[in-house]
Amino acid sequence: SQTIHQWPATLVQPVGSPLSLECTVEGTSNPNLYWYRQAAGRGLQLLFYSVGIGQISSEVPQNLSASRPQDRQFILSSKKLLLSDSGFYLCAYKVTTNEKLFFGSGTQLSVL
Amino acid sequence: GEDVEQSLFLSVREGDSSVINCTYTDSSSTYLYWYKQEPGAGLQLLTYIFSNMDMKQDQRLTVLLNKKDKHLSLRIADTQTGDSAIYFCAETKSGGYQKVTFGIGTKLQVIP
Asked: Each residue of B62-86: pLDDT tens digit?
């Protein structure tokens, strides 16, 4: 069966520090991968998506970047965090054969 | 452009039915989804419907789609306190990479 792992669950970082959030998917090959951000009381904002290794598309210009070094690994990074980067970050994957989008458990990031 | 709209809040009494509504603007949407998010957790796919269907029932959940009006609803029968959560409507199109667009989410409060 397919599963998605995302870590860490919570993170508190000072302004200006780097960030690395990791997401891995098991049980499927060549999934579409996504990073979403959910600000407090808001809907989901798509940040990045990837249809294959090394292929990253950005939806919103910002302080963050994403990489896909392996087929089932998706990393969200920043060199210097801003206060406005605080939020709940969700990784998701979609298997193109059934069009369903499945989410990880999320990372609550607080930038202080 | 694509847009998905939902009301922000719904309050119902335990045992009553809940109806959460959603409207979307993209007439070429192929798949429509309902997700549930409990506090501090990721999004859980509850159910989905293809655009060529009018209704889908899954235990206590009934999804109704009015394609002409671009209106989607989720009915929860015999609402329980465990149904308290935020419910997201989402849509996408089939084929290749397609973005999944989410509504802002409806917070359902179930009163005992």
From this structure: 999 999 999 999 999 999 999 999 9
